[in-house]
Backbone:
């Protein structure tokens, strides 16, 4: 692990951050494993299409509050975005690296909010009981990453400085993710609730290029941050999105007989 110690700050003497580093990695990895096993997050096409009957049964048994897809997704991202904005005033004058980390996280969630409002098309609703834990997860992980960066104040810089490479990777990731989300939105007219096989951009190579670029974006955030928490979160995100992309490809194969077997899940020609 000497290579890791050369690119991250020394772990701060914080039980909270140490615990959250382990929790983030394990929970995201388990989420990826659950996606592979068919236990999909309840805000996706997997929930809206495959589990429609399950959803009706749930609603029939107990009082369930449903939100529109747009409202639910807006709620998911707003607290994390606000955490990034507020952190600029809570932790002023903490140096360039802290500012870049905070800015990257704030831009990431601002982009998601703008996509929710102006780009994404929605085929179903969201259950409030699902929205709340996901919202808390985004908020807590964002606040933890910012706080972990704050705790590096006074520590010696890592031997290898990756922050400028990280900035470049972050913008490649966020740009590629936005572009492929836009391509997905073009597949569906306002009155069309069905699904189609995407073809443009990198969709002819992988079914989830938007996940690939999201991973690149978070690798960029880790390179900017260079904390153990951001490393754990990024590794967990990789595991989760690998599982989710696998589930996505499996779903497409079950719905579209003409889907090319050469189109991979996440990484062109590999996975």
Residues:
């Amino acid at each position: 692990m000497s290579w890791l110690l050369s690119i991250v700050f020394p772990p701060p003497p914080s039980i909270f951050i140490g615990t959250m580093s382990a929790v983030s990695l394990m929970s995201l990895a388990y989420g990826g494993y659950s996606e592979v096993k068919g236990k999909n997050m309840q805000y996706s096409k997997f929930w809206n299409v495959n589990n429609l009957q399950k959803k009706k049964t749930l609603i029939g048994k107990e009082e369930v509050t449903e939100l529109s897809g747009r409202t639910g997704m807006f709620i998911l991202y707003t607290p994390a975005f606000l955490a990034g904005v507020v952190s600029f005033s809570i932790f002023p004058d903490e140096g360039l690296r802290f500012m870049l980390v905070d800015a990257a996280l704030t831009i990431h969630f601002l982009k998601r909010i703008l996509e929710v409002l102006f780009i994404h098309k929605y085929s179903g609703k969201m259950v409030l009981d699902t929205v709340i834990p996901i919202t808390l997860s985004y908020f807590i992980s964002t606040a933890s990453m910012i706080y972990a960066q704050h705790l590096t104040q006074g520590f010696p810089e890592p031997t290898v400085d990756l922050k400028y490479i990280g900035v470049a990777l972050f913008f490649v990731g966020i740009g590629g993710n936005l572009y492929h989300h836009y391509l997905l939105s073009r597949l569906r007219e306002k009155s069309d609730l069905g699904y189609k096989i995407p073809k443009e951009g990198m969709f002819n190579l992988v079914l989830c290029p938007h996940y690939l670029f999201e991973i690149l974006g978070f690798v960029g955030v880790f390179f900017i941050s260079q904390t153990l928490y951001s490393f754990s979160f990024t590794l967990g995100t990789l595991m989760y999105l690998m599982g989710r992309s696998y589930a996505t490809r499996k779903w497409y194969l079950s719905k579209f007989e003409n889907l090319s077997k050469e189109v991979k899940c996440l990484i062109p020609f590999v996975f």
Observations:
- The mean pLDDT is 90.
- The first helix runs from residue 2 to 5.
